[in-house]
Each structure stands twice: as C-alpha cells, then as structure tokens.
Amino acid sequence: MTNIDLEKLKKDFPLVEKMAEGEEVIWLNPRGYNSSLDKVVLPFGSAEIDDAEARLLRFAPLIREAFPETREMQGIIESPLNEIPAMGEILREAGIDFPGKLYIKMDSHLPVSGSVKARGGIYEVLKFAEEVALKEEGINIRSEDYSLLLTDPVRSIFSRYSLAVGSTGNLGLSIGIMGAKLGFKVTVHMSQDARQWKKDLLRSKGVTVIEYRDDYQKAVAEGRKLAEKDPFCHFVDDEGSKDLFFGYSVAGRRIKRQMEEMEIPCDEEHPLFVYIPCGVGGAPGGITLGLKEQFGENVHIFFVESVQAPCMTLGMMTELHDGISVRDIGLEGKTEADGLAVARPSKLVGTSMKPLVDGCLTIEDQGLYAFLYALDSSQGIRIEPSACAAFKGLDLWEEGEVLRGYIADNHLGGKMGTASHIIWATGGNMVPKDEMDSYIKKGSVMI
Ligand SMILES: *Cc1c(COP(=O)(O)O)cnc(C)c1O
C-alpha cells in the first residue's frame, strides 16, 4: 500500500534507525515544545467537549440504575487520582530522578469496564442509543429520565439495532458490556493479541466475538466491511471516530476539578506532566485535547508506546500519519501489551495531536512487568501491562541533553521542584486474579 524508502527515511529522521532495531527512544515534538504561542490552539472547539459532557450527565441516571457500582458517584463514570510517593521512591532509587510529586490517574479502576475505554467507548454507545431513541417513535426520552431506556419495550426496539467494533480487547469490553446492557446486538472483532479472558467475558454477556488470526487493523477492517452492509448497524471506528475522541476528552474537565479538590496546582509556576500509553491514539489523543483545553501550555503531555509498535511516534515524526506502518521499518507490531499492539496510527489523532503533544517515548515489554511489580509491591495497586507503559515517561528525567533542551525551551528552569507528574493508568481492574498474579511474578524476577 505504502511505498516507503527506508534508507531515505533513516536519513531524514535519525531516530528511525534505532526504532527499526527495536530500541527504546525519546522523541520530542519540534512543534509541541519550544512554541512561543501564548495560547495553545485547539484542533476542535470546546463546544464538542461541552456536548459530550452534557450527554454523559443526561445518561447518568441510566448508568446509576444499570451499574450499581456507580451509585455512589451518581452514575458518573470516573476514577480516583492518587498520590503514589512510595512508587516515586522506588523509581528514584532506580535512578529515575524526577523532580516534584508523582500521581496516578486510576482509569484502570473505572467502573463498568475497568479501562480508559469506559470513557470513549461507553460514550459512543450512549450517543448512538440517544440517536436511535430520538428517531424511533416507540421511544419517548423527552421525559428527561433516561433510565426509562432500560425498560423491556425499549430494549426490544434497541435489539433491532446492532453495534460492531474491531478491538485489541478493552474497547470491545466497553462496547460489549454497555451495548448488551441496553439490548443492542453486539459483535466484537478481536485481533490475535486479545486475551482469552476478554473474549470469554464478552461471550458470557451474549456478545458475538469473531477472532482473527491477523492483527488489530485487520480486525477493524473486517468489522467495518461487515457493518457497512447493514443499515441497522453502527460501527465504532477506533481509527477515526470523533465520538470516541470527545468521550475521552471529558477527562480534562473532570481531572481539573479533582486537582482543585486535592490542591494540586497547575499554572505558570507549577508545570504538570502527564504520561499516557498509546495504541491507535484515540484514548491518549482525546485526553490530551481535554487537558490542553483546561491547562494550555502549562501541561506537558507525552505518549508512550511499545518499542515493537511505535506507530504514533512514527506517524507524527514523519508527518505521514496513517500513510506509514511500523512494518515499513521492519517491525511486527507484536507486544505483550495488548492495548498497544497497533501497527498504523489514527490519522484523525495524529494530525490533531501534532501541535499538542510534547513528545513520545517507547518501552520494551520487560520494562512493563518491572513497573507492574514495583507498583504492586510499593502501593498495592494492580494495573495491566499496557497501562504500565506510562511510567516510562519519567525516563525523560534521566539526566541528559534532551532534557536540558526541553527545560530551556519551555522556560521551566527553576520551576521543576513544584512540578506534578501524572501516570495515566489505562487499564487493569478486570484482569482475572490468576492472570494478574502471573504478571506480578514475571516482574518480580526482573528486579
Ligand atoms: C486502548 C488502550 C490503550 C491505548 O489507547 P488507544 O486509543 O488505542 O491509543 C492503552 N492502554 C490500555 C490498557 C488500553 O486498553
């Protein structure tokens, strides 16, 4: 499909050489940082984020009713932000000498589906349900109480519609759990990387799971093709959905309120650094949009990918976006971090993130397990391997020229002592205990 001259690419972008060898890299976005912009220019308006936030509020009574674990939060699907000083100490002992305080955003423990996909995925299902409800004469949701959508007559109308999605696992879980709860027929097209327990769990909820021996992009393409033939089917397009994107972006407003409550400052004197694992880009991209809307240039955002699947780094660096795949530089895209096993990035995300993201880092699989073990033993927090990639972002703070340049260009000199760092833990709470135990064991022998 693409015609990439690898030798020329390596000449134009020296990092490609290392990436092709599967080495860990740090890429700083020449447009993201060193910008003299007073205000960060957002690729989309705040109106879309307002709309998503309002829709989630309208659906809160339904969520509260359908998922008892959200009762305390009044049907708002949100996760805690916790300080993790003991983990910080371990990292510093290991030579990662970051200044300031360390926090974890526990999307790993989001209610309903235990991953960051509970933001975007559930939002897209709700938006579709609202569209159907407004269109179908048998449903009256003007009564304002959306929990009425959970009744049998409505479910039987919803059952004429279906949802389809291609996924490495967690997006499928979110769409499947929420879609099945509302009565939609759901089909999840799963890539080979997807874990068995995720497929089993979905099947137990009546979701159709189709497995592919190929990778994630193939699962998405097949799912899209099948869905196009069916006018009653809504395809959740992980590679290009704006609904997913805006669902994720609401996180920015929510975390700002949490930070205010916890008295965590983010302003000119108190920089905020956020590290987010990245697969196809939707989740970290949407969150970045939301954070930039709230904090502008005082927030610094870094994506972390697998060394075997650095698709977003490659796409943004070369500005070829979805015109380049990690296969073009000889990588397979295979990693034990199932959420990050993506070979080609989303164009929607890459192009809109190019001016916003400050940089990308990559991590080898074994590092994931080491962080996983360290977090469990220091803080008793268990997250999945993909989510652990975020910790690699702190590698920025290993002494070096790269870092000094970044600090100077961003006028951060003298301010780093009051910095905050947020590890965005993207998943983990639904991992079965024996599987999690085996991850921890794996990490324990690495330390
Ligand atoms: C999906 C996922 C990611 C990456 O999100 P993208 O939208 O694919 O970039 C990271 N971590 C976990 C646990 C995920 O499920």
Plain-language structure description:
The structure is a single chain. By secondary structure, this protein is an alpha/beta fold. The chain is 43% helix and 13% strand. The chain contains 18 helices and eleven strands. It has a seven-stranded mixed beta sheet with strand order 1-10-9-8-11-3-2, sandwiched between helices. α12 links the parallel β8 and β9. α4 packs across α15, α5 runs parallel beside α7 and α10 packs across α12. About 1% of the residues have low confidence. The structure holds pyridoxal-5'-phosphate. The site of pyridoxal-5'-phosphate has 19 residues, from α12 and α16.
Question: Gist?
Answer:
By secondary structure, the chain is α/β, with parallel strands linked by helices. The protein has helices spanning 6-12, 15-20, 46-66, 85-93, 117-135, 152-158, 170-182, 196-204, 216-228, 242-249, 251-261, 282-295, 311-318, 347-353, 365-379, 385-388, 401-409, 433-444; strands at 26-28, 81-83, 101-106, 162-167, 185-190, 208-211, 233-236, 272-277, 299-306, 359-363, 420-425. The strands form two sheets. The chain has a seven-stranded mixed β-sheet with strand order 1-10-9-8-11-3-2, sandwiched between helices.
